[in-house]
Amino acid sequence: MSTVVISGTQWGDEGKGKIVDYLAAQADTVVRFQGGSNAGHTVSVNGEEYKLRLMPSGILYKGTNCVIGNGVVFDPQVFLEEVDAMKNRGVDTANIKISNRAHVVMTWHKLLDELNENLRGEKKIGTTKRGIGPCYIDKDDRIGIRVCDLIDREEFAAKCREVLEQKNLILQKVYNHAPLDYEEILSEYQAYAERIAPYVCDTISFLNDEIDAGKKILFEGAQATMLDVDFGTYPYVTASHPISGGVAVGTGIAPKKIDKVVGVVKAYCTRVGEGPFPTEQLNEIGDKLREAGHEFGTVTGRPRRTGWLDACVVKYAGQLSGIDYMAVTRLDILDGFDEIKMCVAYEVDGKILNEIPASLKILAKVKPVYETFEGWKADISKIRRYEDLPANAKKYLQRMAEVTKIDLGIVSVGPNRDQTIIVAENIF
Ligand code: GDP
Ligand code: IMO
Ligand code: MG
After folding, report:
1. Is 103 one of the annotated active-site residues of the chain?
2. Within the chain, which residue ranges are assigned CATH 1.10.300.10?
3. Is there an atom of ligand 2 within 6 Å of 227 CB?
4. How is residue 98 annotated by DSSP?
5. Is any atom of ligand 1 closer than 6 Å to the C-beta of 324?
6. Is 241 a catalytic site residue?
7. Which residues pair with 416 in a beta bridge?
8. What CA–CA distance (Å, rounded) separates 380 from 328?
9. Ligand 3 centre distance from Cα of residue 369 (Å)
10. At 171, phi and psi to the nearest 5?
């Protein structure tokens, strides 16, 4: 198989970065297809931790192409910070390619993200305030500035002036905020443009040529299914399509050219930001999960909300993305639990549901139906073969596969590359 999508199945932070980095050992190219610097993907190599935001998680392999696709909203400031940080750590950044069609996150997007959230008050989404939503709004409103515009000095000067005029009206009249200064933004972004220009190309033809040449490509999802703008817990979602369908529109690769999909499943559940979370544990179990898992946001440092694994959500992700294999991560975090629960169905008003409710009102009434598993109470972080896992851990994993109807592909027992158990040999 030559093209594999990695997609989050829950509410993000499942460990996609670790799985992408692991599989990237065999890849020629790693591609981000949606989202932007709202992502925080952690990769641990030889005890060194890398927190990646826009940078594809293949960057730590010399010679692997790292592509930022057209579906990404691209913040040049963050990107260049990451490039500098990588260079300082001796990581080669020569093989990065940025789509000339990606939309640029501008100063006003970040400001408007913050002002919007403040205006929503109690109803805030809890965004990462990276300008993601406002940048996608402008893309759909057809007033976005793309990377090809940014690196064209005249085009950028004209577009920036035109859009800023509109944004300043909104800032002043809606938010009672001081206008932004054109010259300041222009010179800031012109300096970014000079530095990013060497990385910019037509990634559509590059990727299609790679596929035709039989190269191995990994598509790295950011965020996750339940944050998808169509399929997640709307409006408490992000503004893009993290499901595998997002790959086609976010890269220019036809759906039929996608060979396999791997869904990353955290062995329990977390969520950052507001919105429904049926298996959330607002009690000592939730606290224990947070402490054992050090569950604090990579991008914002916020404590993550925690709860039991919701197999209904993973099954839904399997349907939406056509997931072939699950990569179950952070199983080791459950090592110390006497008892572990898994939600296997949703019940509303005494009836078992066959779907994930669209209505937040109904979702709020959902009663998770739990199955209880005996814990394994053993350190599994040094186990490298599936058959060596404790019987209770295997029972938990097998039930997960049964309920979600997805085969087990990988089990991760720690953040490092070697802490990975391969169950299905032919993923890539
Ligand atoms: P992502 O956004 O999906 O890439 O996930 P994050 O990087 O935000 O959060 C996952 C965290 O779990 C990171 O700190 C990873 O280094 C870490 N991690 C990944 N897999 C495992 C695992 O199997 N066990 C443990 N203990 N940590 C893991
Ligand atoms: P990775 O790729 C977890 C959440 C935010 C907020 C909502 C909308 O590391 O898994 P946005 O800034 O995107 O408009 O915020 O989505 N969110 C994430 N939660 N992991 C992420 O990325 C996320 N990216 C956005 O917390 O609730
Ligand atoms: Mg993350």
Report:
1. no
2. 103-198
3. yes
4. E
5. no
6. no
7. 44
8. 14
9. 28
10. -60, -45
Structure tokens, 57? 């998680």
389 lines ligand 2 (CB under 6 A): no
Residues that place a CB less than 5 A from ion ligand 3: 13, 40, 298
Of 33, 128, 129, the residue with max ligand 2 atoms within 8 A of its CB, to mutate for a pocket test, comes to: 128
Structure confidence by residue, pLDDT tens digits, 38-94: 999 999 999 899 999 999 999 999 999 999 999 999 999 999 999 999 999 999 999
CATH 3.90.170.10 fits 2-91+202-422, yes or no: yes
Q: pLDDT truncated to tens, each residue of the chain (428 aa)?
A: 599 999 999 999 999 999 999 999 999 999 999 999 999 999 999 989 999 999 999 999 999 999 999 999 999 999 999 999 999 999 999 999 999 999 999 999 999 999 999 999 999 999 999 999 999 999 999 999 999 999 999 999 999 999 999 999 999 999 999 999 999 999 999 999 999 999 999 999 999 999 999 999 999 999 999 999 999 999 999 999 999 999 999 999 999 999 999 999 999 999 999 999 999 999 999 999 999 999 987 667 779 999 999 999 999 999 999 999 999 999 999 999 999 999 999 999 999 998 999 999 999 999 999 999 999 999 999 999 999 999 999 999 999 999 999 999 999 999 999 999 999 998 98
pTM over 0.85: yes
In the chain, the amino acid numbered 200 is: V
- DSSP bridge pairs for 146: 103
pLDDT digits (tens, 9 = 90+) for 6-15: 999 999 999 9
Distance 159 CA to ligand 3 centre (A): 33
CA of 415 to the centre of ligand 1 (A): 6
Query: Whole-angstrom Cα distance, residue 399 to residue 295?
Result: 25
Least distant ligand from the CA of 264: 1
- Say if residue 238 is exposed, middle or buried (CB neighbours under 10 Å; 0-12, 13-18, 19+): buried
| Nearest-10 Cα torsion for 222, 223, 229, 233 | 160
Q: β-pairing, 200-201 with 96-99?
A: parallel
Placement of tokens 């990727």 in the chain: 207
Which ligand approaches the C-alpha of residue 137 most closely? 2
Under CATH, what is the fold of the domain 103-198? Adenylosuccinate Synthetase, subunit A; domain 2 (1.10.300)
In the chain, which residues fall in CATH 3.90.170.10? 2-91+202-422
**Could you tell me the CA-to-CA distances from 39 to 239, 299, 419 in Å, in that order?**
13, 7, 23
Nearest CA, atom 27, ligand 1: 415
Q: How far apart are CA 410 and CA 422, in angstroms?
A: 5
